[in-house]
Design brief:
single chain, 5-stranded mixed sheet, 4 helices, binds tetrahydrodeoxyuridine
């Protein structure tokens, strides 16, 4: 699985986004150590706060199936299903990544159909609060 292919899966995952309130469709594609892909989309709610982001949908799907060793995630999003060059993961999703992923976990932010920027989790969430901080 190349980075480009993972990004394409994130863009494809935008198709299933349920975003009638914000109009922003978001897709994510998460790669596990064993080479499995979990996709996710944002799922909004009329009560707003129960809404969930694409990245967390993908991560929670994987955890729910017993997978916790993640290599990288691709994320894409934009208004009306059009990929926007400005769609990095929100702070809550970064925090959820910090629960399961090492600082070198890679986050591919899709900028257009043919372009992405790669960050590490440490770059997007420096000085993270992690499970190490609450170990007994
Ligand atoms: N959203 C995501 O799915 N991922 C992010 O990291 C940022 C925001 C969603 C939440 C909401 O449904 C829409 O994008 C607009 O904020």
């Amino acid at each position: 699985m190349t980075d480009k292919e993972l990004c394409a899966l994130a863009v494809k995952a935008m198709d299933n986004a349920y975003a009638p309130y914000s109009g922003y469709k978001v897709g994510a594609a998460l790669l596990t150590e064993e080479g499995k892909i979990y996709t996710g989309c944002n799922i909004e709610n009329a009560a707003y706060s129960p809404s969930v982001c694409a990245e967390r949908t993908a991560i929670f799907k994987a955890v729910c199936e017993g997978k916790k060793d993640f290599v990288k995630i691709a994320v894409s999003g934009g208004r009306d299903g059009k990929v926007s060059s400005e769609f990095p993961p929100c702070g809550v999703c970064r925090q959820v990544m910090a629960e399961f992923c090492p600082p070198e976990f890679e986050i591919l932010v899709v900028k257009s159909e043919n372009e992405y920027v790669s960050y590490t989790l440490a770059e997007l969430l420096p000085s993270a609060f992690t499970p190490k901080n609450v170990k007994k």
